[in-house]
Write a structure and sequence with these properties.
Layout lengths: L3 H10 L3 E3 L8 E4 L2 E5 L4 H17 L1
Antiparallel strand pairs: 1-2, 2-3
Length: 60
């Protein structure tokens, strides 16, 4: 099983690849500013953050 360090090494070995955080501030890799690899956390870790953000937005 590849680790995220393996993914980083392989992705950055490709031409014109840059690493920049995704909208969730997780590792993501792009070529010419087009996203092609990103870390996607399990749903159970993302749902509480999104629900909290939606609640804050409603509260205004």
């Amino acid at each position: 099983m590849a680790t995220w360090d393996d993914v980083r090494r392989i992705a950055l070995a490709l031409p014109e690849t840059t690493e920049r955080g995704s909208h969730d501030d997780l590792p993501a890799w792009r070529v010419r500013d087009k996203l092609f690899v990103w870390e996607r956390p399990p749903w159970h870790t993302r749902a509480p953050k999104r629900l909290a953000a939606a609640h804050r937005a409603e509260a205004g």
